[in-house]
Design brief:
Blueprint (H helix, E strand, L loop, with lengths): L2 E9 L4 E8 L9 H18 L4 E7 L2 E7 L4 E8 L4 H18 L2 H4 L4 H4 L6 H8 L3 H4 L1 H23 L6 H7 L5 H19 L1
Antiparallel strand pairs: 1-2, 1-5, 3-4, 4-5
Keywords: Cell membrane, Coiled coil, Lipoprotein, Membrane, Methylation, Palmitate, Prenylation, Signal
Pfam families: Longin (PF13774), Synaptobrevin (PF00957)
Main location: membrane
Length: about 200
């Protein structure tokens, strides 16, 4: 999972203006980095210009995913990731990033008509977001919790299978059990039947 770029744009009436950005292009050769950076900014501007206000979108471009969030005030964010990076984390990141940016800069600063006017914007937190969100599991609490739940589910499933001896079925154990009363056994059989019916739908 890789986060390559974070960029901010203003979706103006005529065109989108690039405000500022932070890029991690170490995986590209030194001679390609400038071109890759320009292409990422160009792609972001194109997506922002052609998208409605407000919107969240994810666009696939070759091996990369361009996650875009355009707010109702026309402030827009772009996250360029690889295909493995979770889209939900990227969009949560963009929400936080735009909120942080708009709390530091008034709209009069970023509602610009040309990119030359935006060159005075210095937002060092952008590089920190890029660094911190390289590993989505550590940066996003919900992703971390979901992954832990998935791991626990797999462990529990493996544990039940390991407890049962070879060729032994849980159904047979329930029928032979003296610790379950007739009502509990009937409940188990009905639940199994209902679950089997659901798999055929």
């Amino acid at each position: 999972m890789k986060l390559f770029a974070l960029a901010l744009f203003y979706k103006g009436p005529a065109a989108a203006c690039f405000l500022t950005g932070s890029f991690d292009l170490q995986s590209f050769s030194f001679f390609q980095r400038s071109s890759v950076r320009q292409f990422m900014v160009f792609t972001g501007k194109l997506i922002v210009e052609r998208s409605s206000i407000p919107t969240r979108a994810t666009v696939k471009e070759q091996d990369y995913m361009c996650h875009v969030y355009i707010r109702s005030d026309s402030l827009s964010g772009l996250a360029v990731t690889d295909a493995d990076y979770p889209g939900k984390v990227a969009h949560n990141l963009l929400s936080r990033l735009l909120n942080d940016f708009s709390s530091q800069f008034s709209s009069s600063v970023w509602k610009v008509q040309t990119e030359a006017q935006a060159q005075s914007i210095d937002f060092p937190a952008l590089s920190e977001y890029l660094r911190r969100y390289q590993d989505p599991k550590t940066a996003d609490a919900m992703t971390r919790v979901q992954e832990e739940l998935d791991e626990t589910k797999v462990i529990l499933h493996n544990t039940i299978q390991a407890v049962l001896e070879r060729g032994e079925k849980l159904d047979d154990l329930v029928e032979r059990s003296e610790g379950l009363n007739a009502q509990s056994k009937m409940f188990y059989r009905q639940a199994r039947r209902m679950n089997r019916c659901c798999t055929w739908l």
